[in-house]
């Protein structure tokens, strides 16, 4: 039969399955401690961005199944264009990478690899996400059957509180310092994430799903909008001006060192993220040989950036505003229309669908400090391309991408966490209590006071 009508929407994707029926699967290499690490661990990242097949350059579906643990000591990534590694970028080829743009040979929602990751796998089942019953798993794989994202880094003393802060504990580092690189001289990296673009991520564990350091995250990002200066007509949007060097960056005063300088990207068609565990889903660290609760200590404003300024005299978006920089220069957006976007290089807040998609967290026992977020990104027309004059805000000229539904369910407690839904619905259900824990305090450290901030549940669209 004639298949011409199916060509634009039909994609035949390859599948890759790696299994261990009797033990663990480990991705990447563990970071040695100390300053003698001369191994370029970035070569151990699994970057699938160049793995495309067939005449349409299609991505595939990666399935990892182990009867024991799935251990991620390096990044598993697709949908981002890698960068050159250096000490300045934490010796990571993926940390400062930007989302890839749409390949015209593929439908928009099939641009990236999907992952199916199962620990404590039941190899007699047809479903690749099926896990062994708890009693069986305890008998054949005692203490195993978990998905472990990232490595533990030693907690270090917090001189301000007498407690401890999550850190890396290497010589030369101050209390509370957290950074991607292991130190300034070696070639190690601590960028250990699981992410993709338009593909989906399904994580299933017979025992636990653990995020084991401040950078351990699982998210989908979507694919970059191909014409960012076009909202409804070409040239009607001005991209925010971001400094390209620390010299041109505004002085930060007491805010600390200048962070990475990443240019804005807007994304769409992100995939779903599903995480389920027979016991716990949590963020943890190791302290004194014991597994203790940890927290990302991020809020959405750490990675969800926004811009918008109206000239009070004209009622139009400003064209002559500016920010003074440390070099006494001025950064000026010629049309400061409303926009918000995600800085993917600074997203370390747990589980996310950052370019659209649903998020589901299911645990037989507890969900502990695993933030789950579903933001949107948006642009509003800011100028008339014909006259190049700025225009007044108009809600009908706002184009918003992304959004989805959030489901969080635990058989026992939901303890701590930030749950953010910007456009969609959110549901949190606990068989026990919805509560908090000591790790939620950014000032008192992991072992600080038990009086902490409450969880945040938001469902909103930012005002225009």
Summarize the structure.
This protein has 464 residues and is an all-beta fold. 2% of the residues lie in helices and 29% in strands. It has one helix spanning 134-140, and strands spanning 15-20, 25-27, 46-47, 61-66, 70-72, 76-77, 80-81, 98-99, 114-119, 147-149, 156-157, 164-165, 193-196, 201-205, 209-211, 217-220, 223-224, 267-268, 273-277, 281-287, 290-293, 304-307, 323-324, 330-331, 339-342, 351-353, 359-363, 367-368, 372-374, 376-380, 383-384, 389-390, 398-402, 406-410, 414-415, 418-421, 426-430, 434-435, 456-459.
Describe this structure in words.
- The protein has 464 residues and is mostly beta strands.
- It contains one helix and 39 strands.
- It has one helix at residues 134-140, and strands spanning 15-20, 25-27, 46-47, 61-66, 70-72, 76-77, 80-81, 98-99, 114-119, 147-149, 156-157, 164-165, 193-196, 201-205, 209-211, 217-220, 223-224, 267-268, 273-277, 281-287, 290-293, 304-307, 323-324, 330-331, 339-342, 351-353, 359-363, 367-368, 372-374, 376-380, 383-384, 389-390, 398-402, 406-410, 414-415, 418-421, 426-430, 434-435, 456-459.
- Strands 2, 5, 10, 15, 20, 21, 28, 35 and 38 form a nine-stranded mixed beta sheet that branches. Strands 1-4-9-14-19-27-34-37 form an eight-stranded parallel beta sheet, with no helix packed on it. Strands 3-6-13-16-26-29-36-39 form an eight-stranded parallel beta sheet, with no helix packed on it.
- It starts with 14 loop residues before the first strand and ends in a 5-residue tail after the last strand.
């Amino acid at each position: 039969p004639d298949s011409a009508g199916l060509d634009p929407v039909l994609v035949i994707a390859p599948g890759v399955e790696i299994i261990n029926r009797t033990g663990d699967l480990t991705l990447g290499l563990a970071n040695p401690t100390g300053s003698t690490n001369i191994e370029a661990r970035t070569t151990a990242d699994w970057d699938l961005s160049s793995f495309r097949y067939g005449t349409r350059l299609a991505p595939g579906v990666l399935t990892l199944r182990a009867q024991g643990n799935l251990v991620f000591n390096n990044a598993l990534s697709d949908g981002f264009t890698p960068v050159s590694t250096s000490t300045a970028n934490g010796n990571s080829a993926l940390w400062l990478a930007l989302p890839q743009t749409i390949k015209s040979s593929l439908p928009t929602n099939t641009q990236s690899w999907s992952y199916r990751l199962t620990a404590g796998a039941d190899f007699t089942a047809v479903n690749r996400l099926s896990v062994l019953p708890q009693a069986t798993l305890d008998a054949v794989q005692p203490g195993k059957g978990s998905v472990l994202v990232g490595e533990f880094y030693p907690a270090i003393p917090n001189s301000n509180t007498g407690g401890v802060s999550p850190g890396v504990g290497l010589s030369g580092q101050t209390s509370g310092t957290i950074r991607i690189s292991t130190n300034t001289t070696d070639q190690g990296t601590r960028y250990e994430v699981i992410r993709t673009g338009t593909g989906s991520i399904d994580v299933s564990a017979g025992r636990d799903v653990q995020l084991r350091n401040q950078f351990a995250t699982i998210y989908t990002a979507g694919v970059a909008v191909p014409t960012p200066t076009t909202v409804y007509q070409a040239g009607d949007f001005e991209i925010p001006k971001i400094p390209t060097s620390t010299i041109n960056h505004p002085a930060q005063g007491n805010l600390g060192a200048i962070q990475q300088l990443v240019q804005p990207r807007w994304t769409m068609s992100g995939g779903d993220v599903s995480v389920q565990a027979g016991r716990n889903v949590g963020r943890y660290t190791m302290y004194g040989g014991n597994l203790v609760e940890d927290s990302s200590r991020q809020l959405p404003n750490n990675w969800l950036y926004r811009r918008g300024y109206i000239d009070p005299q004209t009622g139009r978006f400003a064209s002559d505003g500016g920010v003074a920089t440390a070099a006494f220069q001025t950064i000026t957006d010629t049309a400061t229309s409303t926009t918000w976007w995600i800085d993917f290089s600074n997203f370390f807040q747990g589980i996310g669908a950052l370019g659209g998609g649903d998020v589901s967290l299911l645990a037989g026992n507890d969900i502990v400090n695993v933030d789950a977020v579903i933001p949107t990104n948006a642009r509003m027309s800011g100028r008339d391309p014909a006259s190049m004059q700025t225009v007044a805000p108009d809600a009908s000229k706002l184009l918003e991408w992304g959004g989805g539904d959030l489901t969080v369910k635990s058989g026992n407690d939901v303890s701590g966490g930030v749950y953010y839904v910007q456009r969609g619905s959110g549901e949190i259900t606990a068989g026990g209590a919805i509560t908090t824990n000591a790790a939620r305090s950014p000032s008192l450290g992991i072992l600080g006071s038990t009086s902490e901030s409450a969880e945040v549940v938001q469902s909103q669209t930012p005002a225009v």
